[in-house]
Amino acid sequence: MNKPVLEIKDLHKSFGDNHVLNGFSLELYEGENLVIMGKSGSGKSVMIKCLVGLMAADSGSIKIRDFDITSLGRKELDVLRTEIGFLFQGSALYDSMTVRENLEFPLRRNREKITGSQTTEELVVEALKNVGLADAIDLMPAELSGGMQRRVALARALILKPKIILYDEPTTGLDPITSKEIIQLMRTIQKTYKTSSLIITHDVDCARVISNRMILLVDGINYAEGTFAELSTSEDPKIKAFFKN
Amino acid sequence: MEQANTIVSKAKRFFEEVGDITYFAIRFFKEVFTSPFEWKELIRQCYHMGNRSFMLVGVTGFILGLVFTLQSRPTLLEFGAASWMPSMVSISIVREIGPVIIALICAGRIGSGIGAELGSMKVTEQIDAMEVSGTNPFKYLVVTRILATTLMLPLLIIMGDAIALFGSAIIENLKGEVSYVLYFNKVFDALKFSDVIPATIKSFFFGFAIGLIGCYKGYHCSKGTVGVGEASNAAVVYTSMLLFVIDFIAVFLTDIFFDI
Predict the structure, then answer these.
(1) Which of A170, A175, B76, B113 is deepest in the core (most CB within 10 A)?
(2) What is the ipTM of this complex?
(3) Residue B45's domain spans which residues?
């Protein structure tokens, strides 16, 4: 098996007496789509925020391409973050900027990371074309529908051509048809950009279509691990509860 | 006993918040002198804060000058001291009323705007998105806004003072038949550097306070949309109180260091 591009070992995080993560571990391999499922409040979002240094873990190690992010300084962490694309649950587009400015923003400080002769304009247009929204370049986020906002957010996450993409609830708040379109887009993007993806979701359809492997996060630990087919046919009541319609 | 506990916990919260704001200010001074510098965003913020507050400050200053002169005139006439009007109005406006009123207006206009904008960015994860894209959001959002308010408020106050004096001159011209040239000659005769310099220095601190509290409240906003409203409201309340404290300290120091 390949070397993991992302590795979490024995991650602990508490908020006062509330122990959210109690030794969570995972390994994400190159080209893999790993889905993390868990109930609301089970610590999925906390885990993903620890992963990019938005939150400090209490203990444990987080390695991204051999760098332990818990021991990196601000500058090194910023460099490493350019290797990671992050799709936020609510899209998190900068609402005072146009779509173009939203996509240009990550390039301001990291333009040198993109090799080749493409101009900023060409990079923005290419990213928007890849999510099917080239015409929306001069619109404001408020003028876009929820699905379009998610696509623009995805284009922004991809603009630096990251090796790893983190999806935090990519289909939450979208209607079933738009959800399917976003899931399809995620698959296309993985093929185009050859990324490894960590997807946090409680959307069973999303997990079924996109996952190569799944981890169920229960009480802050990896409760179960396997493919969608293995987990969805499990007799364990806790696992069954995730796949009930 | 319960009341005592409530007072103690409120006092504790107050001092914790003062500590947090102090830490926030220290972080500002650490980050303001280190590269990369966000010049473009700083100029954009200066333009937004100056340009968007221009009308409000102008109208406020004009009405302030008009009303102040109208209200003071009968009393001065009673004492036969109507000729002192330009001196009295100019010293009052330049030293105290202009800076304080305009700073309070800007606390409402700019401080609440910053609190609401950053608060909204915080709860919709835009600040987190900025962080993961390799940009330091404190530098981009906070440092630029605090610098912009610190630089723009003195300019707005100078402009507001000038418009207030113009408003006062109109009343004197209409009611007392004092020519504009004579009025402004008397104004400039009355004003000394010891009136203008402390007021200008004070206005830099007012601007800093408006930016600092607005950014602090917005940047630490939580509890969703309710929190955004609270951040915006608290930014105005805290800033207004802080402005009076700064004003008191400024007047006290001016009294010591300048011959007024």
Answers:
(1) A170
(2) 0.88
(3) 38-257
Residue B152 lies in a domain: yes
The mean per-residue pLDDT over the stretch A86-94 comes to 91
Tell me how close the Cα of B225 comes to any Cα of chain A, in angstroms: 14
Chain B residue at shortest CA distance from A78: B134
pLDDT in tens, A110-137: 766 666 778 888 889 988 998 888 899 9
Query: B135 and A88: CB-CB below 8 Å?
Result: no
- Taking the C-alpha atoms of residue B118 and residue B216, their distance in angstroms, rounded to an integer, is 9
Among B133, B139, B144, B225, the residue to mutate for chain A (most A Cβ within 10 A): B133
A96 vs B133: CB contact, 8 Å cut-off? no
CA distance A230 to chain B (A): 34
Q: Is residue B118 part of a domain?
A: yes
Chain A residue numbers touching B135 (CB-CB < 8 A): 105-106, 108-109
Rounded (to 5) percent helix, strand, coil in chain B: 90, 0, 10
- Distance CA(A209)–CA(A185), nearest Å, equals 12
Top mean-pLDDT range of A81-90, A180-189, B159-168? B159-168
Q: Which residues of chain A lie closer than 8 angstroms to B134, CB-CB?
A: 78-79, 81-82, 106, 109-110
Boundaries of every domain in chain A: 84-161
- Residues of chain A contacting B128 with CB distance shorter than 8 Å: 49, 54, 88, 92
pLDDT of A148 higher than 70: yes
Question: Which of B36, B124, B135 has its CB closest to that of A92?
Answer: B124
To 10 degrees, the CA torsion angle through B139, B144, B147, B152?
Answer: 180
| B105-127 pLDDT per residue, tens | 999 999 999 999 999 999 999 99
* Cross-chain Cβ contact A106/B134 below 8 Å: yes
Residues of chain B with pLDDT under 70: 259-260
Assigned token pair, A243: 């796949």
Name every chain B residue with its beta carbon within 8 A of the beta carbon of A108: 135
C-beta of residue A36 within 8 angstroms of C-beta of residue A222: no
